[in-house]
Design brief:
The complex is a heterodimer of chains A (64) and B (168).
Chain A lengths: L3 H9 L4 H8 L3 H9 L6 H11 L3 H5 L3
Chain B lengths: L2 H26 L6 H29 L6 H26 L12 H22 L2 E2 L2 E2 L3 H27 L1
Antiparallel strand pairs in B: 1-2
Helix pairs in contact in B: 2-3, 3-5, 4-5
Chain lengths: 64, 168
């Protein structure tokens, strides 16, 4: 399932996939895989993404 | 000790030294894989491992059969299992974007060059010494296998890059 919330939050911060990847210390392909729903990140990576995008875990990763 | 064996051992030592130098350089440049890449690499390793295990088992069984093709392949045949498993590992990793670490730039030109060089050495040796030695494929055929492996890895990488470009 695609993570559109993450994509929207990233776009809201005007960050490219590469910029977000560098900020959290992963490859661009990993961010791409998370957004596409191909990879479930660990809680550690989720938290790192949340901190960079200034969002909570619920806002980015909770499925309604 | 025959010259061929001496050459093989020398080549092996040179390769080991080169790998150690390259590895120490890579460690200095902090070659790291992220969590997704590590998972993908572990999966690729698992697939390659079982392919090699299956290959070795089948090869061993077939070796005991009189007149089976593998008896004519000898060491070259056994090495092809190793090259096959390495190729599978590399292909899966490239396809899952886990072959290169974060911010790592592999020298693809060098990989291609090694592949071509191995094929050239194979052609030269075959023309000079021939294909068959003591009723089995000669040791030079390993150069061909190595060359094919490098070319396959390079082609997979280029194919994946083209596909990614189209997706973008």
């Amino acid at each position: 399932m695609k993570n559109l919330k993450l994509k929207a939050a990233r776009a809201g911060k005007d960050l490219s996939q590469q910029a977000l990847a560098e900020a959290v210390g992963v490859s661009r392909q990993t961010i791409n895989a998370i957004e596409k729903g191909d990879y479930n990140p660990t809680i550690k990576l989720c938290l790192a993404i949340c901190k960079v995008l200034e969002k909570t875990l619920d806002e980015l990763f909770w499925e309604d | 000790m025959s010259m061929k064996l001496l050459g093989f051992i020398t080549g092996l030592i040179v390769a080991l030294v080169l790998v150690m130098i390259i590895k120490s350089k890579a460690t200095k440049t902090m070659k790291t894989f992220d969590e997704r890449q590590m998972v993908e690499r572990a999966n690729a390793f698992k697939i390659a491992y079982w392919v090699l295990a299956f290959f070795v088992c089948m090869y061993g069984i077939l070796m005991s059969v009189d007149g089976a093709l593998v008896t004519y392949l000898g060491t070259v045949g056994l090495f092809s299992g190793f090259f096959l498993s390495v190729a599978i590992f590399a292909i899966v990793c490239i396809w899952k974007e886990a072959y290169q670490g974060i911010n790592e730039n592999k020298n693809w030109l060098l990989i291609g060059l090694i592949g071509v060089m191995n094929i050239v050495v194979f052609i030269y040796d075959t023309m000079k010494y021939g294909f068959v030695e003591d009723g089995a494929l000669s040791f030079h055929c390993i150069n061909l296998e190595c060359g094919i492996l490098m070319v396959v890895v390079l082609v997979t990488y280029m194919l994946k890059k083209q596909l990614d470009k189209r997706e973008d």
